[in-house]
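Reopening: DUF2267 domain-containing protein still failing for me.
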Amino acid sequence: MTGIKDFDDSIGAAQQWIDDLTLSLGWQDREKIYLALVATLHALRDNLPVHEAVFLGDYLPMTLRGLYYEGWHMPRYSALRTREAFLERILEGLHRDPGVDAEQVAKTVLALLADRIPATELEDVRVVTPKALRGLWPA
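Support: Ran it again with your exact input. Result attached.
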């Protein structure tokens, strides 16, 4: 790929996340999967206190971590405290594609995070997720 080990490893890890979401969502369009992943990560990030948002970013592969922080303005925290606003943010990230079920996307991406992040660390993020959104995390 790039010939730089850290970059290549990170790109490979990001591709694996997209591959896993492709299987979970049943979509074939990798660009759409990418948009769904980034939109959900941004919506989640903007619903977490700064410390927990940064904490979550530490567990993302380097390539995804850069995308996670892209466009982040810390004062936006709590702007999406309702489930509807959270799901709307995901739809916006997917260009309002009428074939997208934003709740399914959110649950699938959050399940992927739950699979990739150690349980004790994930629990720290879950407990500060707004109550209206906690039902989107896997049980």
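The two ends are 38 Å apart (CA to CA). If you still see a failure, please send the error message rather than a screenshot.
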